Amino acid sequence: MTAPALKARGIVKRYGHIEALRGVDFQVDHGEVVALIGDNGAGKSTLSKILVGAIEPTEGTIEFEGGPVVFKGPADARRHGLEIVYQDLALAPHLEPAENFYLGREIYRGGALGRWLGLLDRATMRRRAIEAMRTLNVNLKDERGRISELSGGQQQGVAVARAAFWASSVLFLDEPTAALGVRQRSGVHDMIKKVQQNGLGIVLISHDLPEVMDVADRIHVLRRGETAKIYERGETDTMGLVAAITGAH
Amino acid sequence: MARRAADSNGLMRLLASGRFRWLWLLVCLLGLFAFFAAWNPTAVLSTYNVRNIIGDASTLLIVAVGVTFVVATAGIDLSLGAVLIFCQVIAAKTMIAVGGSGWDATLAGTAAALLAGIAWGTLNGVMVARLRIPPLIATLGTLGMAGGTALLITNGINVRTGIPDELTLVIGAGRLFNLLPYTSVVAIVVVAAAVFALNYTRFGLHVLGIGSNEVAVERTGVNVASVKIRVYALSGACAGLGAVVDLARFSTTAVGAYSTLSLEAIAAAVIGGTSLFGGVASIIGAVIGVFIPAVLRNGFVILGVSSFWQQIAVGIILVTAVYIDQRRR
After folding, report:
1. Residues 188 through 247 of chain A touching chain B, CB cutoff 8 Å
2. Which of the following CATH numbers is that of domain B22-328: 2.10.109, 1.10.3470, 1.10.10, 1.10.287?
3. Among A29, A62, A23, A41, which Cα is nearest to A171's?
């Protein structure tokens, strides 16, 4: 059995006297979707920020691909193969999908001089980005159009495809369907399943309980900074989840 | 056959994408020129007149190209008039210090002007990107500081002597192949370099990305502050180069002039399709945005219409251009 993609042990985060997290263990394996749910203030966002290196835990350790790791910020986590799709997507609306794919990780042409000048190899960037999007069924009418000309669902598709393209280990999705309609939502779910089949571990942060039950292999419920419950697929229903989130047993 | 259809679709898409919106502007500019030419062909179409329009535009062209990058990041640079004059004063003083004649003095003065421009621009960039002072205020502050320093150095009196003939007679009054003023050649080189940088390099992509969604670019790991500082430094450098070009043309510093230079440059960029909200920019558009007011001014003078009408016309064009940009959002 291979090591889990990402594993956290005894994570504590204190802000002054406030304990946002009080000793949480968390794990996501390759090819597995773990949903992270909980009420506002339960610690979801603090935990996910710690896992992607955006903030440091007060106590606790993180293991990445079986070895201990301390991410020095999100850029460092990204270098390790961990990608995040933020709720606001973080796409530049005036740029085309390929440019968004490669922002900060451009491909150059023209050898050493081209690299020094930062001469962009747009053709290669476009080809690879379009290929990556098509693999995940993100089919755009105009693949060179601006992001702002796409529908909300298509923009979400581009954002997920971009993250999946760069991720080699774990993909974090923060409320990926919150702003979408029913059909677009199922498109994103299909994408998640495809990405999962490619062997990435996926952490899904969501408020949408039916979605979580549909997509997740494991559901990690946080309450007041602690793990309230961990359910395997099919172990519970919406009522059970609500009970775990609110603490009403 | 199918291949040709695909190609023509591609062409239509390019035209519709807004990347070639400057083609429409070019039609407007040529139409304007044709209108004035129809009234008085001999005067408007004379080599002398056309060369004058192009030569007179050199300084503003260079400055407008620089500020286009700033506007593309959703920033603004109001300091350019004062920075240009400061750079002129530094250039003139350096040239005098090196002997007041010869190519070495010309080169030393040019280098000093460029460095001075880069220094003020870098200060703008650091204030905006690191100290988080709004660009409007940061560059307004620099406008005062650079302008005041230039006045202190010169006591408000223009430097007219000690500027090398190589600069004024050879570059300022000379023409490539006896046709194109050398100052315009400099402007064309700057325009070409800027088109390349904005459209074909990582720097240009980051500039447009920052103007489009700064947080998104930051999250990709790009050093946004560094890009912004370089953008303002570039704008300052262009003001420094514009200062030397102006010095070459007029053989004197321009203390007391250029109070509206930044606004004219920003207006040119905006008329040319660069969005004040960032993310969209066109260098060729900015060039056309420089020439539309220039042709208007020239035409009104030749037709004997008060040149005050030019100001009114440019004002209307500017507001219309921004309105169109707003509607497109």
Report:
1. none
2. 1.10.3470
3. A29
